[in-house]
Amino acid sequence: MRYCVVGGGFSGAIxxxxxxxxxxxxxxxxxxxxxxxxxxxxxxASTGVMVHRYGPHIFxxxxxxxxxxxxxxxxxxxxxxxxxxxxxxxIYTLPISLLTINQFFGTTMGPAxxxxxxxxxxxxxxxxxxxxxxQALSMIGPDLYRAFFYGYTRKQWxxxxxxxxxxxxxxxxxxxxxxxxxxxxxxxxxPEAGYTAVIRNIxxxxxxxxxxxxxxxxxxxxxxxxxxxxxLDRFFGFRNGRLGYRTLDFERFEGEGDYxxxxxxxYCDETTPWTRISEHRHFAPWENITSGRTVCFKEFSxxxxxxxxxxxxIRLVDEKKMLGEYLSMARATAGVSFLGRLGTYRYLDMDVxxxxxxxxxxxxxxxxxxxxxxxxxxxxxxA
Length: 383
Prior knowledge:
CATH superfamily of the largest domain: NAD(P)-binding Rossmann-like Domain
Strand content: 15-25%
Protein name: FAD-dependent oxidoreductase
Domain UDP-galactopyranose mutase C-terminal: 147-347
Distance between the termini: 35 Å
Oligomer: single chain
Radius of gyration: 22 Å
């Protein structure tokens, strides 16, 4: 019997190729008409711009193995994500940096002075932040929090920031320099031909059949083992309920020339219904597009419904309880392993997805060679 991989994103593609390279016969299925998952890129028919169809994706990592792996299958150009933000009628640089601080407060402080200034704004009574809001107030104080995080977070998550875990904000840096690189990883880039081309190259290996537009639920073939990167709750028919996700709606519009002068513009005020606008010509500066039609997308966040594409796991109290039940069911189910963002119900950057899939391949080798049963999960989900 051959092996089945469900889902054609990075997780599924890497595992499917690995199995095929080891001489296993593999069927990879994806219910979309294209591989690549939410990283899917394609040429916009109207403007000719390479579009990140499900929102912008910048590959950034500190894992040399992951970086070397993706570059085997496509040329990656260096790319620095420089995000701008509209707040209270003015434009600032994000993440919060020395430039943002001086712009916002109308000052000309240096690094040491700004550090002392922000320390004076921070709420020192909060020694152990219990939620997102307390984390922000303890780091930057109420003024910057209200300007850049409160409204945006409410739009993005649909709840009060005080109901979100503090860990979400720990991913957002505050810099006392003029460094406007949104990420800090040593390797950052975007593939020249797009992510879908990279994943198609990963999948180009003998012994691997790709079946697009197919649902796993409709496949009757028996398999030696299934590697499932779809939604964890869906595998079990939503038996214990549906895990909570946020989804995104995209409002496409075109313009002439350069619309906003940057790739990503965040809209922090709650009165603006969208969270950001992405102008996709700026994600491929090597194409040197300076004229012609441009294409942009406004992003709107809302609770994911039954027929929506799930993006961000909510992981509030109810979801954690339900997740525990599904994890127990998964561990008790033989013949299937769960991977990736949806299969493990976690928010994962692309590089982490790649790193975990490569580590899973290592464990697959060890397990199959020893004749043992493959685990339900290849990473510790209790952390």
